Amino acid sequence: MPDHDTYQRLIDLLDTAHVDYTLIDHAPEGTTETVSALRGHPVSQAAKCIVLRVKVDRRTTRHVLAVIPGDRRVDLDAVRTLFAARYAGFSDAGTAERLARAVPGTVLPFSFDPELELVADPEVVERPRLYFNAARLDRSLCMSGADYERVARPRVVPVSGPAPV
Length: 165
What we know:
With about 160 residues, the protein is α+β, with helices and mostly antiparallel strands. About 30% of the residues lie in helices and about 30% in strands.
């Protein structure tokens, strides 16, 4: 199953980089709010991972993995401005799954595809504890934001705004 291949690739990467992490088994769930409750932490400590399609011009499309705190929303205008693009929006499910190598609800805050550019909000890398589904609906991972930044090497820029009330 592709998601388990992605899971093993993540574990291998973290072990090779000597990252201190914890695995958390839970009921299968991919919704940030629900899985945060299952894991027992505030939603703000979750990494919400969203695959975006960014149209730079008529012929150039880039794909971006935006990683934001779980209690925020992606700021599409900030992403559009960041890439000096004409348009930024959500990727279709098929493209997102292909590039992230994971099914919706299990997308990692890491990119294993050169076509998927990684952008993380500063609040993500500042978290002492960062939680995310580990390319599986039934298993999550907790690590520090500093280790995440060191290993994933995202472009760190503000790309989130307050969630609608």
